[in-house]
Design the sequence.
């Protein structure tokens, strides 16, 4: 297992905080530095044991780090990786944890100084809740992390990035940034959009009669509206494609209900159950 | 707390089994009889302690019962309450646990022999899983049960029905069958439809990249397709109305994403979050 002398985490929310906590509890880092703009978040991150030290200065924070992980909202990642690349140690490995990949990896590809080792990644872990106060050293255990190299990525850097996530207990899969965004549109971004539409469409007076079904189906609608606005805009094209497919299925369901077409309705519900059962709890 | 000498439960799935188990564990019934068509389900119900005895004969099972609870799929409830009414003891209290109420309460209103004490109810508890093997004596604790009297219901029967559910640990609310069906269309039936559409619309190849968000949002799509077909058809009018409202919100979200209209998108996501936060976990 690789051990890092100094790791810098840019953005110590739930994901960044959990990475720091896992690195520290697993004894994988000599020192973890948390970098952020808000002193209060940095204080919480330190108090819960997510980081050893903190800095509000990106250049100072990443100095001498062998590994830098950028865990900020997707709209800021490209700029921040560029800033990191300008000031970090030569030969430092840089990755991110953004929920979209094409604009980030594409935006950085070819525009980083020669020799900078950046490989994009996306841990499929998280929660509708946010902030370093909820960081957990076990957040990535058993979860999947998608690694999305660019055509220019060095094989050894891709492998080092995969090893990092595996050392936190995750499994890794590798695909192109475009493949990632198309798949995540259906697997994550559309579910969030649909959950939000469902919660928003529920009349206030019906809320007291909701039970576990509504609660499960709308849980992720409690996520941060600003973060998800960024993700939806960033992955606009694939998300709209996934929405088209969803609306097509919904239309078939509507027609079956209107016509009391039992065969079509039951068959579609069976198909849905089949897919849901395949994934498990 | 009222104690019943003999309680008959028609249909010993998750709900019927849990009622029997709760009555027995709380010492509220001298004997609980489980009635069903499938000997295997009855055996399981007895083995897990949901019932004291079983019968595949409705007339024999309900004979001498002071309380009969019909927990079968919604399409069968009207016929079964009629059968129960023909053979149960005079003065027995009859209720049901169906997920729709207007067709059941309306279908029975005025058509039951004089003196039969039927009051409809719907416990807002359950799971995407089914069968007596998963019955739990605590299923109703802290949950809401909707009691839906007809214009002909006697006050004392409505109160006795509410007392029954409260004795199992539930809270009760009372409304008309129509009010129930309109509210549950938005609070339960539409979420199920949307969860099923989302699961069915997810491409098979994307399933390995789903995480907790997809899993939560689609969980109830694992429910029994036949039961939910019945519920969707039975509550067709209100469900289509709730679907209209949902599609309207979804259309607004789509347009905001297409136009990158940040203000509208974030505002709607905030409204969704606000409603979701109000309900809690």
Sequence:
């Amino acid at each position: 297992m690789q051990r890092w002398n100094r790791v810098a985490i840019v953005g110590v929310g739930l994901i960044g905080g959990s990475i720091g906590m896992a690195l520290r509890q697993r004894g994988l880092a000599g020192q973890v530095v948390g970098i952020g703009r808000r002193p209060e978040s940095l204080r919480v991150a330190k108090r819960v044991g997510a980081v050893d030290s903190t800095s509000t200065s990106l250049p100072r924070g990443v100095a001498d780090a062998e590994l830098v992980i950028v865990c900020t909202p997707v709209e800021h990642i490209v700029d921040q990786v560029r800033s990191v690349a300008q000031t970090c140690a030569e030969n430092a490995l840089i990755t991110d944890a953004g929920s979209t990949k094409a604009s980030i990896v594409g935006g950085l590809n070819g525009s980083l100084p020669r020799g900078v080792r950046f490989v994009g990644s996306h841990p499929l872990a998280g929660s509708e809740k946010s902030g370093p106060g909820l960081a957990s050293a076990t957040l990535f255990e058993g979860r999947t992390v998608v690694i999305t190299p660019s055509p220019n990525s060095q094989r050894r850097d891709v492998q080092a990035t995969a090893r990092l996530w595996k050392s936190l207990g995750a499994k890794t899969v590798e695909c192109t940034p475009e493949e990632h965004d198309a798949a995540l549109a259906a697997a994550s971004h559309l579910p969030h959009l649909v959950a939000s539409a469902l919660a928003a469409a529920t009349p206030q007076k019906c809320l007291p009669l909701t039970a576990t079904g509504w609660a499960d189906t709308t849980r992720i609608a409690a996520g941060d509206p600003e973060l998800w606005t960024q993700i939806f805009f960033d992955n606009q094209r694939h998300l709209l494609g996934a929405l088209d497919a969803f609306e097509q299925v919904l239309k078939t369901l509507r027609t079956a209900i209107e016509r009391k077409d039992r065969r079509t309705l039951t068959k579609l519900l069976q198909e849905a159950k089949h897919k849901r059962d395949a994934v498990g709890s």
